[in-house]
Design brief:
This protein has about 120 residues and is an all-alpha fold. It has one helix and no strands.
Length: about 120
């Protein structure tokens, strides 16, 4: 009976020490996996951050380009409107000048007509 008990105790000790070693290995494996997962997550996070920054910069440059385009278009429209306004002013000035010349000519003709209708003193 002693031999059986010694063998049982011995097998229990061997099995126990094996399970402790196995548990220790599993713990080490778990720690390694956790460390690898953490480093992979950090890399992925860094890559995503880089992509976000790149997208943000791209959108910012597009926004500034659009603002520049809008500003240029607005300037062009102002320039065109100024040209049209100046052309209209010149046309109106020319019309006033023509109207004044016609009035002057009509007045002169009226005066000549009045003088021709008046009896001559000679």
């Amino acid at each position: 009976m002693r031999i059986i008990m010694i063998s049982v105790v011995l097998s229990a000790v061997i099995a126990g020490s094996g399970s402790v070693a196995m548990a220790d290995e599993l713990t080490n494996l778990g720690s390694e996996l956790k460390g690898e997962m953490g480093s992979m997550a950090s890399e992925a996070k860094g890559e995503m951050k880089g992509e976000q920054d790149q997208i943000k910069e791209s959108l910012k440059s597009k926004k500034e380009q659009m603002r520049g385009d809008i500003k240029a278009k607005r300037e062009q429209m102002r320039s065109e409107m100024k040209g049209k306004r100046d052309a209209l002013k010149a046309e109106r000035k020319e019309m006033k000048k023509t109207a004044k010349a016609k009035r002057s000519k009509a007045k002169k003709q009226a005066e000549e007509a009045v003088e021709s209708l008046e009896p001559s003193a000679y």
